[in-house]
Known about the structure:
By secondary structure, this protein is an alpha/beta fold. It contains 11 helices and 5 strands. It has helices spanning 16-23, 29-44, 87-100, 110-124, 130-133, 158-162, 173-179, 193-198, 202-227, 232-248, 254-260; strands at residues 5-14, 60-71, 74-81, 104-107, 155-157. A hairpin with a 2-residue loop joins β2 (60-71) and β3. The longest helix is centred in the last third of the chain and has 26 residues, at 202-227. The chain starts with a strand and ends with a helix. The model has no long low-confidence stretch (mean pLDDT 91).
Amino acid sequence: xxxxxxxxxxxxxxxxxxxxxxxxxxxxxxxxxxxxxxxxxxxxxxxxxxxxxxxxxxxxxxxxxxxxxxxxxxxxxxxxxxxxxxxxxxxxxxxxxxxxxxxxxxxxxxxxxxxxxxxxxxxxxxxxxxxxxxxxxxxxxxxxxxxxxxxxxxxxxxxxxxxxxxxxxxxxxxxxxxxxxxxxxxxxxxxxxxxxxxxxxxxxxxxxxxxxxxxxxxxxxxxxxxxxxxxxxxxxxxxxxxxxxxxxxxxxxxxxxxxxx
Length: 261
């Protein structure tokens, strides 16, 4: 693992304003959210996605993106959130990483959710991401080494890869993390994100999103060990480095470390 690695995760809430506009709903925000949830359940009933009020991909508003950067022996955990940035600025900052760097991207269900949502929302805000989407148009070397092709290793969606690209085998990150002895989701889930945003609990939201990133990183190390990309000594060294990092920074992830002990 000589190249830099970027493990990432996004958190979203329903885009109520778009839903109000597109469905002609002249309602308060809370009433509109209930109405949109009902419309979504009705729309999904009997379809492949079953009965769900989970918005379709374009209708998620990104409220937080967290990442773990590993490169040159260093580790950095960061979050961009609507506590102090607009959705547009969150996305622009994240995509701006790829203007300067070409990291190996690691996610859990990133190909099925995080990346498509990022792209839809980037287009909502009229952003450009040529380096992130380059398949050889700007750099010929990206033709067979890019983030779009599922069979390239430049973006490893662990949920997809570990399921052998068969959605019948998909598993939850929380289950796999705990199976391997990692902390998992620390008692909350994605269903709590909207209430956290409404309550202004940005610290808790970022802690949750970063926890998913850390779990994904640790599962990725096991996957790389299984694939023979690292040996057991390399694996243990990366794990130790992660523990040492969490012991001193960031302070708000000490709970993650304590649950891992």
